[in-house]
Amino acid sequence: QVQVAESGGGLVQAGGSLTLSCAASGRTAYIYATGWFRQAAGKDREFVATIRWSDGITHYADSAKGRFTIFRNHADGTMYLRMNSLKPEDTALYYCAAAQFVGDYSVNYYKSDRYNDWGQGTQVTVSS
Question: What is the mean pLDDT of the segment spanning 63-75?
Answer without folding.
Answer: 95
